[in-house]
Every structure is written in structure tokens, then in C-alpha cells.
Amino acid sequence: MTERRDDVRRRSILGTSLAVVVAMSLSACGGGGDDGASKTVRVTLANHVWTDNIKKALPEFEKQTGLKVEITQLGEDQLSDQYNVKLNAGSADIDVMMYRPLQEGKLFAKNKYLADLSAQVKSGKDWDFSDFQAGPVEATTYEGKPVGVPIITEQEVLYYRKDLLAKAGLESPPKTLDELKAAAAKIKAADPSVAGFVARTGKSAAVTQFSSFLYSFGGDFVDGGGKSALNSEAAKQAYAYYGGLIKDSGPANVSTDMSWPEAMAIFTQGKAAFYTEANSLYKNATDPAKSKVSDTVGFAPFPAGPAGSKPYSIPSWALGINAASENTDNAWKFIEWATSKEQTLAQQKSGVPGARSSVWANPEGTSTFPEDLVKAIAASEKTGVGHDRPLVVKVAESREIVGQPIVDAITGKDAAAAADTANAAFQTFLDDEAK
To answer: Which interval of the chain is the signal sequence (predicted)?
Structure first.
């Protein structure tokens, strides 16, 4: 998620704005743009391994066209600051923008900062928009129109310890949430120093990972009419389950402000049997330099609840075109190339999970991932939900509201009552946003 401080994204040098002018050509697209259009495409990207890979690939295209790409590369906070200034001002200084669909996508689309890409996504037969996974496409669509192209994806999967399962006499990882609860309790009862289950506990940080539990119980943050659904029976059950699992089978004296680094540390130090988390963080668990249990880690699809297995399947980053750009044709040519099957395959081989189904189906595209993780991701794609937090403009504020019952349930308070209180607050929030 965009709040995750994984080491891939934290390669950024915070507070630094790096403007790099590099040349590119579009061998697949041909041409240097329409007559009169600028042959320099101005692209703003986040500090990310995806960006590093794209920069390395750009020179090969200089041989085919006269197009140039001027890249501004920024840390996440600086990226948000620049967008706030330039997009609010209607500036045409940015042609292509890398953005977070679930964090700022609705704000950008609502304010008409993102161009409608309906015509563009139909333009290239070889590019093939239908190849993109349904969940990520849903998250980059606004009012029925595509406004972005997903480039980096995440799904929630179950991390587990093979050795601890074997020791407990469990032949396979749990397939249902009921089985997960029973297995976690059994393992902790056998050795109280090892948690049966660990996950994020912080009020805001836990929302994304809790969402898969919510969907699998049959709930969501809002109902079909756009009203708060935090006090639905499904939501109340999900809050009680998630909080109760951590309270009863989690680490002793568990903190209620853990994000992924703290939860992952407990798992990789050998202090937990099960852990639900984003697949994009898997190397933290499998790298011997970071994990004491690297050789015993397994991955499984998110366990099924009453409504089935419904983990989130989302794009953490996407590319869009600034609606104020005066160079949209060439901006699209950059996006078309950067999100092509060839570039997505190259990115995925380097460890960046992409949004193209064909690349996931290609053995070469999964060659660097653990085999059981690939199977878990494939299962997630089939049943996944395209959001992992409320789809609102003020995302940070909403997460504070919907995350409170998680903390209350972990600390032993009445989850149903907490859900009722949060529901009223969230409905007020939604009413205010609708004004």
C-alpha cells in the first residue's frame, strides 16, 4: 500500500527532487508525435524500483524516434506536494503522472486532473487492455471511464511457517478462516512464546489488511447505495474475528500501533505461525539476510470466510495523463510502451508484480517468485476485490474512522458496539464529502 515503507520504495532519498533528462523512442509505437506537438514528454514518477527499471530501458527507444522523456523522480511525500501545487494550478508542466489509485485516485479524478483514456486504451491491438487484471482496472476507473493504467499490483495472501504446521500435525495451510482460527490457537497453546497469528494492529495501518477479512465475511465499507456499512452483520463479524484472532492467538502484550514492519519483524524472527500481508513484501520473509525463518516460509491463498475467499487485488501505483497536458498523444505513447507486455514482463522478472494476466501466465514472468506464492496470487486474481480501503477523497481521515473498531476488538472491547459507533461517524464523514 502506499503507506508501506518497504525497502523497495524507501530507496528514495527523502526530500530530494531528482530531475533526469533522458531520451527515449517508441519502437513499438513509431513516430515522434503529431505535427506541432512537443517531442519532449514530461513524466513525473515516484522513487521505486519500477522507475529505476524504466529509466534503464529508455535509451533503446532513442534509435527509433525523436521523442524525449524528461523524468522528474520524487519521494512519495514530495510527489504529493508537487501534485498538490501543479495540478491545483492547472499546470501543463506534467504530461504523464505516476499516482496511487486508492490513495489519491478519486480526488484526482473528481477534480478532473486525470484525462479520460477511453479512446487510448482501445487504440493498440497488441497492447491489449483486456489483458489487465479486473481488480486493478476497477481501481483505475472513475464513473465508468478509465483514467489510469495499473503498473504495480498487490494482493493479500497468507504467510505461514511450514515447520510449525508440521509440528502441530497440520498437513496443509488453512483454507478457511475457521481453520485459521483453530490452527492459530493450537500452535499458541502448544508454545505460548510463539504467536499463532500476527497482523497489523494500528488503527489506520490495519485497514488495508483487514479489508480482505471484511470482504470474505460478505461486507464492505459502504453498501450499494453509498451508505456506510460498518455496522452490517458481516462487518461486525469481521471486526470481531480479526480483533479476536490477534487478542487470543497473537503476540503477548501485543501493541495496537503496528504497521507492516513491526508485524513482519515478529514473523521473520520466528515468533508467529501465520501472518496475512501483501504479497509485494514477500522478500522480507524469504531473504536469509532479513529473515531467520526464510527456509520454512510458505504462502497460501487468503482463507475463505462465509462469503468465500475475497482478498483485495489492487494497483498500488498507476500511470495517468494530466488533463491539462498539451502533449497527450505522445504522453500516451510513453504509457503504451511503459505498460506493454514486454516491459511488464521485464519488470516482473525483477520482482515488481505487474497487472497483466498474460505475464502471470507466462512461466518466465513468475520464474523469480516462489511457486506457492504464484499459485496464491493466481487465486487472488480470480476472486479479488479492487480496493483495500474506502473509496473516498479524504482517505487518511476515513481510515482513522473505520480502523477504530479493529483496535477496540483487539483490546477486548465490544466489537459490535464499536462498529455501531464507527458507522455513525463514517456516515457523517460520507455526508460531508457529498456536500
So the answer is: none
